[in-house]
Design a protein that fits this description.
Blueprint lengths: L4 H16 L6 E2 H7 L6 H14 L8 E2 L16 H8 L4 E2 L2 E2 L2 H4 L9
Helix pairs in contact: 1-3, 2-3
Length: about 110
């Protein structure tokens, strides 16, 4: 996928927020979209996170899940269990591709002090 200048700026804003997600916490595509001022752009946040895999720079993309805690991006990690293993290494339990006790692990980028 070729990124235009506006896409590049959007993607970089997404990456800035994703880099802030603390270990042991997760955020959602929609929460990130709201945090960067594009509340209707959750799907584009997903595209940005997926694009990060080809950019060569580490991004803790495993900490981004859908609005109910499902590991919807797991197929981008090079193995069906890699995303789950990364989350579990940070103390987050996953069952059937879903974060256990999602609300307790959710990090809202609109509340950066959380």
């Amino acid at each position: 996928m070729h990124k235009s200048g506006s896409d590049t700026r959007f993607f970089e804003r997404v990456y800035e927020v994703v880099r802030l997600i603390p270990p042991g916490r997760v955020s959602t595509y929609g929460a990130i979209a709201r945090a960067i001022g594009s509340p209707q752009a959750a799907r584009m946040v997903g595209w940005a996170v997926n694009q990060s895999f080809s950019d060569g720079e580490f991004l803790p993309a495993h900490r981004v899940v859908n609005r109910i805690g499902l590991l919807t991006g797991k197929h981008h990690f090079g193995g069906s269990d890699v995303m789950q293993q990364l989350l579990e290494s940070e103390g987050i339990q996953v069952d059937n591709d879903r974060i256990v006790n999602f609300e307790a692990h959710f990090w809202d980028p609109m509340k950066l002090s959380d």
